[in-house]
């Protein structure tokens, strides 16, 4: 398929023009990144956004992989001397990998099979005659193929060999496979049963002990849960339609009469389905269902990650960060306004030492000495007790006290990144630093941690790891470039995600900065070793330099447009600096006057927006949050309590909310709103502050059920019907509250 055909196909799939696809493909081929293309090449692409550009990139790669496979198949068949013009056209016309492999199957080199053995015995002509299903006696025809030297001593042996060959022909028939694949997907079911004798060991999969549901509608979390149960040898999982339906479909394709030969072919159909087609289709459909489940789980993960990375930053404030604890004490670190490490101490305000006076005096001293403006407390063990202690000290009112989600802080503290940053500090001090910096700028700190360890995923260890990594990398890069990076304070890890850079150039930038001091202009970045014109073009617009020689260097305006802005300022009779400080004057710029061959209204509109608020952080303004006083542990909860909380994770079956008791509660999908909710992301986002009602408290199993409904205890007629007890759960119902999924996710999230 030519590039033009690829462009036409992708344009049709995405609902855009083929010219947009071609232009985007050309930019990608030149090495341009998705953020750069979507931000600075709108005239070229017709204002495609990041999602569309990434979709073009990924689909182009899929089509290239398909073309590569076609070339390999054509070469293989040609070497066998079996390539005809008709077959070549069929291969070149194949639009999916599965169809392509179906066409190739009869020519694919294979191990020695029953059919191969039968051919070696000279039984293929008999198979051909029987498969034609003309009148005549198969028994009589088989007699002429008896040959003791070849191992064919009876009529039945000859007929069995012929049926083995016919079964392989049916298995290799592309039309049969296509229709059977469709049947498996449309009518197939997952049927899950517990392995006998493992009922107690497999208790977390109890909902799947006797369970079935359609493949095409099974949600991601249940598919992944069943597969995990099977992998852990707790569940038996069958996949497919009713056998009679599959056999009927195949027979309709291959049976052509009602005689003795037809009976032999029918026997071959049954054998071929059970031995060859069913296992093959099961494998394909499992791959299909797994891919579909992976895509849904990865989508949930990346959306959660985006919301977490773009959480409101406190900004450049002096922070005292506390990693709370009981027996080992609370690790305290003081950070400067740029996040630099100043001092660390250990205090023991909680049980068993309970040194509240000494601890309080030390905290007050540190707050005064380092002019602390905010206190960040990790939300792990002893967090609420430590928060209560800090609030009792009577610190100045301007000092914010904030609970910070510490998921992944321990991963960071033991990482190479942390050891490189703080070689002389132990794990606990590094963890406290991470908690403090996370409050100041979540994005800058969280990029140092493997995204899978941040605690916002769903079955992240079960999905395709390559696809997950690619999607997470895209998300992190999108967030980093969307916010922009201060080149003089950014870590190597943050710079790595800037468009056009990567780990090597990020390291060179940091090394240059350390040797020569802060960059004074974007132009100076070109002096970094190995950073060429192409990398500079891709990165420059996303790198910020505050208080540089050129006021535009702190904005998202690309240096390639500086001359244009200088012209605008001159036309308005002011300097660029004066223009940036006068938003009303900016709004008076006649944009159409500056439309040219390489710059159109989309780019000019972006420039106007940036000039109005140069360097503005696109993230929401930080707002402090306070948990309910007196609610510190799960035992403090009572049914019906209304509490403030923060959304920590979103799954397909609901949202987890931190209410300050060291155990997140679950707001099930059915409890997220007073209306029907299909996707939790319609209602909530990670880090969102919400009000919840306690619906269920299981202290022994550390399980909390929450609701966000206005009146969660009010029963509608429909709810009343649902709640009528039944003696046996219907297999077509959803598993009760999906508890297996919830518990598995809770254990994975909290390690409990």
Automatic annotation (TrEMBL):
One of its GO terms (biological process) is translation. The keyword Phosphoprotein does not apply. It comes from the Bacteria. Residues 640-709 form the S1 motif domain. GO terms for cellular component: cytoplasm. One of its GO terms (molecular function) is structural constituent of ribosome. Residues 720-752 have a biased composition (Basic and acidic residues). Residues 60-97 form a coiled coil. InterPro entries: HHH_9, NA-bd_OB-fold, Ribos_protein_bS1-like, RNaseH-like_sf, RuvA_2-like, S1_domain, S1_Tex, Tex-like_central_region. SMART domains: S1, YqgFc. Keywords: Coiled coil. It holds the Pfam family Tex_YqgF. Residues 711-752 are annotated as: Disordered. This is S1 motif domain-containing protein. It comes from Cyclobacterium xiamenense.
């Amino acid at each position: 398929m030519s590039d033009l055909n690829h462009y036409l196909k992708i344009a049709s799939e995405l609902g855009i023009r083929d010219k947009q696809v071609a232009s985007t493909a050309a930019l990608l081929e030149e090495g341009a990144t998705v953020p750069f293309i979507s931000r600075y090449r709108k005239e070229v692409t017709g204002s495609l956004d990041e999602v569309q550009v990434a979709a073009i990139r990924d689909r182009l790669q899929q089509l290239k992989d398909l073309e590569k496979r076609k070339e390999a198949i054509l070469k293989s068949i040609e070497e066998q001397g079996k390539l005809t013009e008709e077959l070549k056209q069929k291969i070149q016309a194949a639009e999916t990998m599965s169809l392509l492999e179906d066409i190739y199957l009869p020519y694919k080199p294979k191990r020695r099979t029953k059919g191969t053995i039968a051919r070696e015995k000279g039984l293929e002509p008999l198979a051909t005659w029987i498969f034609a299903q003309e009148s005549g006696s198969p028994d009589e025809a088989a007699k002429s193929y008896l040959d003791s030297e070849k191992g064919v001593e009876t009529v039945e042996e000859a007929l069995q060999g012929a049926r083995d060959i016919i079964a392989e022909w049916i298995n290799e028939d592309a039309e049969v496979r296509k229709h059977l694949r469709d049947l498996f997907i449309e009518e197939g079911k997952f049927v899950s049963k517990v392995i006998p004798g493992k009922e107690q060991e497999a208790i977390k999969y109890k909902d799947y002990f006797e369970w079935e549901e359609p493949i095409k509608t099974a949600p991601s979390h249940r598919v992944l849960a069943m597969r995990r149960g099977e992998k852990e040898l707790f569940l038996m999982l069958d996949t497919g339609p009713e056998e009679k339906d599959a056999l009927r479909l195949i027979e309709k394709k291959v049976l052509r009469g009602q005689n003795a030969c037809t009976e032999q072919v029918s026997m071959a159909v049954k054998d071929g389905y059970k031995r060859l087609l069913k296992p093959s289709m099961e494998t394909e459909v499992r791959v299909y269902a797994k891919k579909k489940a992976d895509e849904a789980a990865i989508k949930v993960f990346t959306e959660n990650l985006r919301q977490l990375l773009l959480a409101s930053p406190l900004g450049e404030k002096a922070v005292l960060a506390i990693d709370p604890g009981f027996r080992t004490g609370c690790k305290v670190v003081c950070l400067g306004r740029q996040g630099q490490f100043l001092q660390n101490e250990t205090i023991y305000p909680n049980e068993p030492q309970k040194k509240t006076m000494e601890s309080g005096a030390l905290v007050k001293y540190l707050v005064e000495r380092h002019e602390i403006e905010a206190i960040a407390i990790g939300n792990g063990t002893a967090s609420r007790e430590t928060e209560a202690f800090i609030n009792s000290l009577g610190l100045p009112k301007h000092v914010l006290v904030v609970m910070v989600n510490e998921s992944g802080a321990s991963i960071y503290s033991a990482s190479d990144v942390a050891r490189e940053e703080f070689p002389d500090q132990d794990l606990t001090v590094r963890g406290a630093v991470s908690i403090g910096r996370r409050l100041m700028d979540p994005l800058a700190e969280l990029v140092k941690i493997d995204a899978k360890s941040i605690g916002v995923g769903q079955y992240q260890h079960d999905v395709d790891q390559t696809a997950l990594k690619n999607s997470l990398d895209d998300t992190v890069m999108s967030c980093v470039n969307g916010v922009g990076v201060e080149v003089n304070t950014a870590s190597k890890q943050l710079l790595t995600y800037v468009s056009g850079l990567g780990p090597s150039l990020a390291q060179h930038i940091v090394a240059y900065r350390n040797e020569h001091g802060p960059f004074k202009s974007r132009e100076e970045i070109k002096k970094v070793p190995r950073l060429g014109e192409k990398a500079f073009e891709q990165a420059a617009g996303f790198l910020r330099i505050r208080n540089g020689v050129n006021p535009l260097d702190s904005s998202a305006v690309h240096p390639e447009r500086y001359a244009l802005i200088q012209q605008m300022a001159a036309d308005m009779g002011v300097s660029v600096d004066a223009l940036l400080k006068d938003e009303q004057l900016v709004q008076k710029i006649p944009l159409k006057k500056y439309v040219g061959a390489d710059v159109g209204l989309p780019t000019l509109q972006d420039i106007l927006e940036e000039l109005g608020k140069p360097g503005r952080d696109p993230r929401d303004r930080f707002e402090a949050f306070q948990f309910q006083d007196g609610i510190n542990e799960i035992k403090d909860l009572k049914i019906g309590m209304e509490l403030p909380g923060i959304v920590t994770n979103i799954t397909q079956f609901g949202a987890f909310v931190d209410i300050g008791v060291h155990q997140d509660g679950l707001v099930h999908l059915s409890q997220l709103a007073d209306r029907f909710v299909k996707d939790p992301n319609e209602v909530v986002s990670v880090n969102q502050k919400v009000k919840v009602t306690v619906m269920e408290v299981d202290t022994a199993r550390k399980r909390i059920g929450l609701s966000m409904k206005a009146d969660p205890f009010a029963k509608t007629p429909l709810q009343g019907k649902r709640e009528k007890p039944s003696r046996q759960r219907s297999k077509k119902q959803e598993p009760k509250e999906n508890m297996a999924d919830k518990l598995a996710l809770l254990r994975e999230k909290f390690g409990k």
